């Protein structure tokens, strides 16, 4: 047993205005606490006589809330933020790995909209904000794809379409505790090179109260909503939970519900990538230009300016039933469900510069890229300004169910059996309505206005200077006409069924305290399904699909406010009214058809080839069988107590995926008719299933050296793995044979992708003093490789399962030509790996020794520094540039200053991260640099009675925007403002 000074208990009680005397052996894990009853005027602390309770960890027993009158046992209870720090520090201190912890009170008390917000307050953890809200988390400079997550010890799948968990779908009100394991142990499920996040829902039999009910109601307001026409100003949060024990404490029941209805608000500028080039400066032989034409400069596709609004509704459900018919057996069934629905609009305008055929004058350069100038439309360019009125719907479902049986077979042997299902489903529908400027919208045959001139100059991380010769027309119904409508559904489903058995055997040994071993089998299926519908033309007026004349009742003129007020006004279009007027019969009727072209049969007569949708649809299958053995250490060497574990995890993975090989309709090579959702039949492809089987050995060791009663040193080493993004395993395969018989092919993804592997080492020092704790840690990871796209020469197509012919027939001579292997371009684990290393510092201080009235003051802070030699190449900004590992910020800081006094509590929390690399919001597959950001949150609460409390909070106190750029800060990516969120409400517990 560890003993130390009465630091955290005494400081927490002092912070609440109560003094209590403990011996130096009474802190964190006191086996026996004896006190006299102390009357206190504050509702935050209850202190009363306790006799021979002997808890495993007195202060970490965060369920010790009330007097148990029937047994005569009364316990110490510390509530509020001080208690949350106690629970977190205790969990960290007595854990057997390098980890960070969050307690139940911590999660319930802070203004956390979701678990994503809550987790970012831990050392070395940061978040990527989407729509102003934290969603994906980064751990130690690595993106969400390297983060593995469990709920009640069970693997979680995601609606993200990859392996990255969207933690904003987990309401903090329904999670009782969270842990982030930065070093693994053999008993943990494999999958997190960055770390493993373990979320836990409540165990009803562990509560001391017979019945416990809590309710939380809050109204919210966004202060930027009035700047966005059609946006909602107000929202709400509602939650309640109940835990009860019945049948002489042998049956426990818990249920919970949390609802979030919040406005989605943003005003944004989005710069588009530099995906074209032309000779702008007229200087030949510019060696800085593209390799294929060194005289050219890079030009951007254009930019967008948009108002975003809508409503996000999340309904979370939790239930658990726990049965302990005898002392040595517990059976628990639990369920968690989240429904996250979002309906939003994006309005404004999109500027297309027109590509290499546009006329460019007065250019301004950053390197060899054009960041300013005047673009004029020519007869060959597509220079234009589109008025956009988009409608997006996203319906996400997350389900997690499990049954767990825990049987203490003998005094030494414990058996735990678990069966679980985790499922996620996402249905995203992107609806786009394009409008363009006509010369005269009232004409019998309206003509697209080709007199287009756009001037702009990027200002780095500030908004650009812009000018439009058509500015007045953007808000004129006599000029603007609807020219195209498109819907782009994207559905994905992910499901994993898992079966696990674990054994623990206690030993009578001076070195090994116990041995754990077990096995787990999981079966995962992932699918994505793309489809498309389009009508009209976004770059011209189609004669066969004519544009729509707008009327006053369909439109509203929208002005820009605040920082964006200098942009020209535009027309907001009522989508339903416009579509009903455009398609009065409900279905558009195309005039002309291209019929059967390129192996695609189009019975519905659409004028565009939509066959790409079948190529972006497919399934992935993943079966994993793993086993482990781990020894738990509890010994003493030379008077130095040592605890920890060492072991190995063996993992066999069988992964495969559906692929489509382009065999150009040859039935002898397996070509089949593939029909999409709107009836288009593609005859080009041969379906196949391909994959790979591999086995990994993952050793690990965790050691904890108790240097003194107050300090300890941890060391950990392990081999870890993260599987590739699951969506990168399925995709299209294209293989073709040239006239001379050479076979060449390519694929966007690859079912043969192997995991990311890393060897990692952790060393930390923890010191606990009278009024807090200090923790310092260093870590080092050496990652083998990353995914890259390469060309493989002399690729064995037939040997790798491709349906390719042995010979072709020369059309002229009729002779057979034997085929030969050429080049195959695909995604492989080939990008050079390297190290990630860093330093983490954490400090907790409650100033209990200050005079009365100030003893409730406290401070909690963490800092991490991370660096890596891993870099990638980007050309999104035109010029080739290197960028850091996605998710890596060199410096990450989080801090909370808090104060409590007689029922009143207030705190200011902040988190900072400097520049990092991530995917640009609203632009798929564009990984860009993000500017550093500081996000502040504030909360104040008052406990009116023992059960009733009122609360006020502000999220994003300074209205911090997100800003990104391509390669250099001069090439603006995104600039987004989300507004402040104000909450006012009450909590009630009984």
> Biggest sheet: strands, sense, closure?
31 strands, mixed
Mean residue pLDDT: 84
Total helical segments:
6
Structural class: mainly beta
How far the N terminus sits from the C terminus, by CA atoms, comes to 35 Å
User: What portion of the residues fall into strands of 2 or more residues?
Assistant: over 45%
Number of strands: 56
Radius of gyration: 31 Å
- Shape category: globular
Roughly what percent helix? under 10%
Short description:
It is found in: Cell outer membrane. With 990 residues, the chain is mostly beta strands. Among the domains are: 1-98, no CATH class; 329-408 and 413-491 and 500-506 and 531-615, no CATH class.
Write up this protein.
The chain is 5% helix and 54% strand. It is globular, with a radius of gyration of 31 Å. It is mostly beta strands. The N terminus is likely disordered. It is built from 6 helices and 56 strands. The longest helix is centred in the N-terminal third of the chain and has 15 residues. Among the domains are: 98 residues, no CATH class; 251 residues, no CATH class. The strands form 10 sheets. The chain has a 31-stranded mixed beta sheet that branches. A 5-stranded mixed beta sheet has the order 3-8-9-6-7. Strands 18-19-22-23 form a 4-stranded antiparallel beta sheet, with no helix packed on it.
């Amino acid at each position: 047993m560890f003993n130390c000074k009465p630091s955290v208990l005494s400081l927490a009680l002092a912070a609440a205005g109560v003094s209590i005397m403990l011996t130096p052996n009474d802190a964190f894990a006191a086996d026996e606490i004896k006190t006299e009853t102390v009357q206190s005027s504050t509702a935050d602390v209850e202190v009363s006589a306790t006799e021979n309770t002997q808890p495993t960890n007195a202060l970490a027993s965060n369920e010790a809330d009330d007097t148990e009158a029937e047994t005569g046992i009364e316990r110490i209870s510390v509530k509020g933020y001080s208690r949350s720090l106690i629970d977190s520090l205790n969990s960290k201190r007595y854990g057997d790995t390098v980890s960070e912890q969050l307690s139940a009170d911590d999660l319930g008390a802070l203004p956390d909209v979701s678990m994503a917000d809550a987790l970012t307050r831990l050392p070395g953890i940061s978040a990527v904000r989407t729509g102003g809200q934290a969603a994906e988390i980064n751990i130690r400079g690595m993106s969400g794809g390297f983060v593995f997550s469990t709920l009640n010890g069970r693997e979680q799948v995601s609606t993200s379409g990859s392996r990255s968990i969207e933690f904003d779908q987990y309401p903090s009100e329904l999670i009782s505790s969270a842990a982030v394991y930065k070093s693994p142990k053999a008993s943990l499920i494999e999958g997190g090179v960055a770390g493993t996040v373990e979320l836990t829902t409540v165990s009803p039999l562990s509560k001391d109260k017979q019945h416990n009910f809590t309710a939380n109601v809050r109204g919210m307001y966004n202060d930027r909503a009035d700047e966005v026409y059609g946006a909602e100003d107000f929202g709400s949060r509602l939650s309640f939970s109940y835990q009860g024990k019945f049948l002489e404490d042998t049956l426990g029941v818990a249920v919970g519900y949390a609802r979030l209805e919040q406005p989605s608000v943003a005003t944004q500028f989005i710069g588009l990538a530099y995906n074209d080039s032309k000779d702008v400066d007229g200087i030949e032989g510019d060696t800085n230009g593209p390799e294929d034409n060194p005289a050219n400069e890079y030009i951007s596709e254009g930019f967008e300016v948009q108002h975003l609004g809508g409503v996000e509704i999340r309904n979370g459900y939790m239930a658990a039933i726990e049965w302990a018919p005898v002392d040595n057996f517990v059976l628990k069934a639990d369920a968690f469900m989240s429904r996250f629905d979002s309906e939003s609009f994006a309005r404004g305008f999109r500027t297309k510069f027109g590509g290499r055929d546009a006329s460019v004058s007065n250019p301004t350069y950053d390197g060899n890229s054009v960041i300013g100038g005047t673009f004029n439309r020519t007869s060959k360019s597509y220079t234009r300004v589109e008025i956009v009125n988009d409608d997006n719907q996203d319906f996400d479902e997350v389900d997690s169910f499990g049954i767990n049986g825990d049987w203490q077979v003998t005094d030494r042997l414990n058996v735990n059996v678990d069966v679980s299902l985790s499922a996620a489903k996402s249905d995203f529908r992107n609806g786009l309505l394009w409008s363009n400027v006509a010369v005269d919208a009232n004409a019998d045959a309206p003509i697209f206005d080709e007199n287009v001139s756009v001037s702009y100059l990027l200002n780095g991380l500030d908004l650009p200077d812009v000018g439009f010769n058509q500015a007045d027309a953007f808000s004129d119904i006599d000029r603007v006409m609807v020219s195209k409508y498109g819907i782009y559904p994207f559905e994905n489903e992910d499901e994993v069924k898992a079966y696990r058995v674990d054994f623990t055997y206690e030993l009578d040994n001076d070195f090994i305290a116990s041995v754990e071993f077990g096995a787990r089998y999981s079966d995962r299926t992932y699918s994505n399904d793309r489809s498309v519908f389009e009508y009209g033309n976004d770059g011209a007026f189609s004669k066969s699909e004519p544009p729509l004349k707008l009327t006053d009742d369909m439109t509203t003129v929208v002005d820009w406010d605040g920082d964006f007020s200098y942009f020209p006004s535009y027309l907001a279009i009522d989508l339903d009214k416009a579509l009903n007027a455009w398609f009065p019969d409900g279905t558009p009727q195309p005039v002309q058809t291209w019929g059967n072209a390129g192996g695609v049969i189009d019975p519905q007569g659409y004028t565009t080839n939509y066959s790409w949708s079948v190529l972006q649809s497919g399934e992935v299958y993943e079966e994993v069988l793993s086993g482990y053995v781990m020894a738990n250490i509890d010994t003493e060497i030379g008077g130095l107590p040592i605890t920890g574990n060492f072991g190995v995890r063996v993992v066999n993975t069988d992964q495969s995926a559906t692929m489509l090989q382009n065999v150009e309709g040859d039935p002898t090579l397996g070509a089949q008719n593939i029909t999409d959702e709107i009836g288009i039949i593609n005859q080009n492809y041969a379906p196949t299933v391909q994959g790979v089987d591999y086995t990994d050995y993952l050793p690990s060791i965790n050691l904890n050296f108790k240097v003194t009663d107050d300090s300890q040193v941890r060391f950990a080493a392990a081999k870890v793995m993260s599987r590739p993004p699951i969506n990168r395993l399925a995709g299209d395969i294209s293989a073709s044979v040239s006239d001379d018989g050479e076979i060449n092919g390519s694929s966007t993804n690859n079912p043969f992708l192997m995991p990311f592997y890393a060897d990692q080492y952790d060393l930390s020092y923890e010191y606990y003093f009278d009024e807090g704790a200090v923790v310092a840690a260093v870590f080092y990871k050496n990652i083998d490789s990353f995914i890259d796209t390469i060309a493989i020469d002399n690729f064995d197509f037939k040997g790798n399962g491709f349906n390719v012919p042995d010979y072709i027939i020369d059309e002229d001579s009729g002779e057979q030509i034997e085929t030969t292997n050429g080049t195959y371009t695909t995604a492989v684990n080939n990008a050079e790996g390297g190290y990630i290393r860093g330093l983490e510092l954490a400090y907790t201080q409650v100033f209990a020794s200050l005079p009365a009235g100030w003893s409730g003051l406290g401070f909690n802070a963490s800092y991490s520094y991370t660096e890596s030699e891993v870099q990638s190449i980007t050309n999104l900004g035109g010029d080739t540039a290197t960028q850091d590992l996605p998710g890596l910020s060199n410096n990450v800081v989080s801090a909370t200053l808090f104060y409590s006094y007689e029922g009143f509590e207030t705190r200011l929390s902040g988190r900072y991260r400097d520049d990092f690399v991530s995917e640009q919001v609203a632009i798929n597959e564009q990984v860009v640099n993000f500017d550093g950001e500081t996000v502040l949150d504030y909360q104040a609460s008052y406990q009116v009675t023992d059960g009733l409390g009122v609360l006020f909070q502000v999220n994003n106190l300074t209205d911090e925007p997100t800003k990104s750029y391509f390669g250099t800060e001069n090439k603006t990516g995104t600039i987004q403002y989300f507004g402040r969120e104000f909450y006012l409400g009450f909590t009630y517990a009984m």
